[in-house]
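[Meeting: bench + compute handoff]

Bench side (C.D.) handed over the final construct sequence. Compute side (W.E.) agreed to return the predicted structure before the next meeting so the bench team could plan truncations. Sequence as handed over:
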Amino acid sequence: MALVPRFEKKPGTSGISGQLYETKLLTLIFVRAKILSEIESFYLASNINGIGAFDDIMFICHRKEQRVPEIWFIQAKHKENPNKERFSEDLLKSEKDAFSLTKYFESYLTIREKCNIFDELLGCNFIDANYKFVIYTPAKEYFLKKLVIGSSEFTDRNDIIYTSDKGKTFKYDYNEEDINFLTKSTIVSLIRRLSETLVQFFLNNNKNYKNMMSNASIRKYHVFLAQNVFEFLENEFDDHYLVRFRLTFLNDNNKNVITELKLSILNLYTKNIKGHTKESIINKLRELRFKVPKNFGNLDICIRANEQNTKQRLNYLSAKIIQLLKNKNITVHNIVHINDNMLTGSNPILTDGDLKDNEGIGGLIGNLLIIDKDTEMFKFTDTPDLLKENSKRIYNKLILALQKEGLNNLHKFRFEINVTDFPALLLMNKNDKILARDFLNNLLFYTDQAKENEVEKITKLEMTVKRNPYAIYLNLHNYIQKWWMEPKDSNYLTKDCAIYENVSDKSTVCQYTVAINITN
């Protein structure tokens, strides 16, 4: 039997509250995915650690007639009395409500940041899969703004999570006001995540500075932090730089995102260090010195190699940039359009290595490529004389190559880069609205669905067993309950698991082997 991958469980999800609804839905999906011949393979998980609110159920499936795999992230919200639980779009705007759209958008962003962890199971890049984010509940909907999917608002009987003829499936009919609401919430969430990461980093006395760039938020915003929050001291060591907080950052009171970031850091720091006021905390931060890895901030593109290999890499990157500038399908009206789709296909234009933060185009952000504040796109630096060694060598190579092509104006080009996990120079940018629209376009509401006792009845009726389906269901559901309650990590349930066939024999059939860790 093939080895079954494992996933890390979210801490504190082995309790009883809400368990039956989740485990019975999991049992239903597992039975259907096993029975349906059109599903060639699948991976079913619950309570995956580190992905936020959409962690109740994660389901990947490959269908015979579909080239593109599906990946579902489902939040199950059971309601004991659906007739009294009014679910309307007003609840989506409430941060404290269980149906808070802000909470779900944060989970979407977290999944997008870490989405490459699912690529192996999908057999493609996450961005190329058919991904869906589902809010699933028996609660009755009272939406005024909804988009019906297909010919009817009622859930398709062939849907893998159909449970009721009265169940509804729809999208939220959003407008620009909703997009603005979400993008504003994004900034608040981002500032909180950055603050928590940085304060935790300080409180640990800078011990893990070498692993600093493994954090998704730091990796994405390290150049922004280097240019707006931290000041690099003159001391340079073999494996790190020494930095401190910029006085302009600590003294900032302009009521912008920089100010919000400062206040968030101060509030968190004050909570963790007792007996200090915000003023005394600012004094402590002024005195603080700490290490960051050599690739933090992109002072220069970081290439860890000998001179010969460094030269080869710089030549390759220069040639790749020239190729992009000359490609008329990519560069239109002097704007170079780079997105995730360019990394896929049988003959991709770019590879992950071409864009990565260390030795790729991502490593040029903040030195050779800076932000054009008018367009919020990247442009070539206006001050090449200030570039450090490697980025300056690339700049000179580009100038010479473009002159041979009869293109003398390097500074007319702009780069519009919409790539997952790519360095950002702004906390707020136009891409936030693109992500908000993508989230709402792929957010599905399943309302008026069956309650947990009804889900059980449906599963029993659909089980293709000839004798005693009730007893066999109890054994199957009991197995899935135990699997759901496993405290740390667990195996994915798959098409190859023989649990369904051998459920009357309570032996463990799936092999527990490969671990998949989903953390920051």
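W.E. noted at the follow-up: The longest strand covers residues 39-45. C.D. will use this when planning the next construct.
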